[in-house]
Amino acid sequence: MSQTAPDSDLPARILVVEDDPGMRTLLVRALQADGYRVRGVQDGREMWGALAASPADLIVLDVMLPGTNGLDLCRALRRGGVPGIEAGQLDRHTPVIMVSARGEELDRVLGLELGADDYVAKPFSQKELLARVRAVLRRGGGGVTEVQSSAPRRETLKFAGWTLDLRRRELTDPSGAVVDISGAEYDLLASFLDNPQRVIGRDRLLELSRTRLGDVSDRSIDVLVSRLRRKLGNDSEALIRTVRGLGYIFTSPVERL
């Protein structure tokens, strides 16, 4: 079954970055069998070359790579790439799924801090990986997504001078400037805006975020809240307050247009 985009008949493009030849072949074949267009490379140098030659809608990125590791590659991507690649050749918002044999929470949290959209620990089943890929492509803020069963709601939310366009998945600050926001940050903000001026417990936030982040934890939610606060800048502490022992509250009223 081909996984296509809303505005294209072509399958989504996935770049697999994995140094182990056997694992790389396994991942590429599994994703191809699910209908995606897939390329496989072995390290960061080849990753940048592949992205410069042709964009990807999702990167499956191993953490333990020779040379530059996956965490540093994710950080570089989010910052706009590396010298020698012209501006416009890379989309720094391309969704990333980190893959690692090290499943410690510290690695997961660090990956999320650096802007990864999901984190899968080896060993994992092909079914789990494909489910994560579909979820990130379906809900990701950048890249080609799967066909939706219905069109996104044409709706705009306003709060404290900010605007969240649910159709475009776009956040605008009070000055009118568009603020870069990842898919995970968008999901978290949308959850807050759906429940304004009420305490949302961590358990509820875990439930809301689990489709994107998989086996998340309290610490993972705290990381996402911290990332979202940074995007909201000087307004963040007033807008998202920590309620000790309970969770978080979004303090601003929300207007739906």
Automatic annotation (TrEMBL):
<protein>
    <recommendedName>
        <fullName>Regulatory protein VirG</fullName>
    </recommendedName>
</protein>
<keyword id="KW-0238">DNA-binding</keyword>
<feature type="domain" description="Response regulatory">
    <location>
        <begin position="13"/>
        <end position="137"/>
    </location>
</feature>
<dbReference type="InterPro" id="IPR036388">
    <property type="entry name" value="WH-like_DNA-bd_sf"/>
</dbReference>
<dbReference type="InterPro" id="IPR001789">
    <property type="entry name" value="Sig_transdc_resp-reg_receiver"/>
</dbReference>
<feature type="modified residue" description="4-aspartylphosphate">
    <location>
        <position position="62"/>
    </location>
</feature>
<dbReference type="Pfam" id="PF00486">
    <property type="entry name" value="Trans_reg_C"/>
</dbReference>
<keyword id="KW-0963">Cytoplasm</keyword>
<keyword id="KW-0805">Transcription regulation</keyword>
<keyword id="KW-0902">Two-component regulatory system</keyword>
<dbReference type="InterPro" id="IPR016032">
    <property type="entry name" value="Sig_transdc_resp-reg_C-effctor"/>
</dbReference>
<dbReference type="GO" id="GO:0006355">
    <property type="term" value="P:regulation of DNA-templated transcription"/>
</dbReference>
<dbReference type="InterPro" id="IPR001867">
    <property type="entry name" value="OmpR/PhoB-type_DNA-bd"/>
</dbReference>
<dbReference type="GO" id="GO:0005829">
    <property type="term" value="C:cytosol"/>
</dbReference>
<dbReference type="Pfam" id="PF00072">
    <property type="entry name" value="Response_reg"/>
</dbReference>
<dbReference type="InterPro" id="IPR039420">
    <property type="entry name" value="WalR-like"/>
</dbReference>
<keyword id="KW-0597">Phosphoprotein</keyword>
<feature type="DNA-binding region" description="OmpR/PhoB-type">
    <location>
        <begin position="154"/>
        <end position="252"/>
    </location>
</feature>
<dbReference type="GO" id="GO:0000976">
    <property type="term" value="F:transcription cis-regulatory region binding"/>
</dbReference>
<keyword id="KW-0804">Transcription</keyword>
<dbReference type="InterPro" id="IPR011006">
    <property type="entry name" value="CheY-like_superfamily"/>
</dbReference>
<dbReference type="GO" id="GO:0032993">
    <property type="term" value="C:protein-DNA complex"/>
</dbReference>
<feature type="domain" description="OmpR/PhoB-type">
    <location>
        <begin position="154"/>
        <end position="252"/>
    </location>
</feature>
<dbReference type="GO" id="GO:0000156">
    <property type="term" value="F:phosphorelay response regulator activity"/>
</dbReference>
